[in-house]
Amino acid sequence: MRRPRFLPDNFTLMLIASVALASLLPCRGQVAIDFNLLTNIAISLLFFLHGAKLSREAALAGFTHWRLHLMVLAATFAVFPLLGLLLKPVLGLLVTPALYLGVLYICVLPSTVQSSIAFTSVAHGNIPAAVCSASASSLIGIFITPILVGMMIMQHDGSAGYDAGHAVLQIVILLLIPFLAGQVLRRWIFSWIQRHPKLVKVVDQGSILLVVYTAFSEAVIEGLWHQLPIPALLGVLVICAILLAIMMLLTTYASRWLGFDKADEITIVFCGSKKSLASGIPMAKVLFLGHPIGLLVLPLMLFHQLQLMVCAVLAQRYAGRIKSDRTS
């Protein structure tokens, strides 16, 4: 039987199921402690596998395209945060302060790696540059995102005593060290990973589902659904759509104005307008210790699904135009 077009992908359905399970059966006490430990192990394993998968040759092949990488990094860590601040008068009318905090968190996150490269490939963009740019964004985000959180989000929240250095150290231990270990051991384990592609997918999705379940369990215990009015939830959807649309338009027309060719434009659009759920949720565990994480990552989950749907359509349109140009 063919899958209905209106039905979300399996991972989205599993995310929804995780939220539902946390709402009905939230983990508490020692079970919550055990789940948190399991989640940290899964996250570290995920980044270890990502490090082992990343080809240094492909990354170096795209590294020389420095203008493209600067533009992607500027869009990710400068334009996006600035946009989140400039739109505050509008966003504040649509969502609660806690949800706006979650929207600001989206704005300071690194670009996603896997889907950026995948969509660039489908659209016939510059794949080596996409590998380099998305990977660099993810690694640089380990250091920049905590600093931006301290500069923007904690000031907005009015929290005191935020230690960016400690946050960076925790994220380095949880994400960067396993990634570097994967790079070091790549020559011995890469062929095994290639023979077991489902392993990375299971670890990738499983770690995110574990974080979502534990985060929403804590939020539900603290009264999440009593703090989240339906109009505010709809407001988050509108805000995510506005952010994504503006960033896609900015990256598209800026790349054309700066003289990039079509392949580079595709790479800039897909790497510069997307945000990483795989990095964002684990980072939230460290950066928002003591905050209602479930409520804060909800905008990121919605933005993630929206960007996947929009980019899938856009990638097909790019591919169609390029095919048409080649045959004409």
From TrEMBL:
The keyword Nucleus does not apply. Keywords: Membrane, Transmembrane, Transmembrane helix. Coiled coil: none annotated. Pfam families: SBF_like. Gene3D superfamilies: 1.20.1530.20. It comes from the Bacteria. The chain crosses the membrane at residues 39-56, 68-87, 99-119, 131-155, 167-185, 232-254, 293-315. InterPro entries: Na+/solute_symporter_sf (IPR038770), Put_Na-Bile_cotransptr (IPR016833). One of its GO terms (cellular component) is plasma membrane. This is Bile acid:sodium symporter. It comes from Aquirhabdus parva. The lineage of its organism: Bacteria, Pseudomonadati, Pseudomonadota, Gammaproteobacteria, Moraxellales.
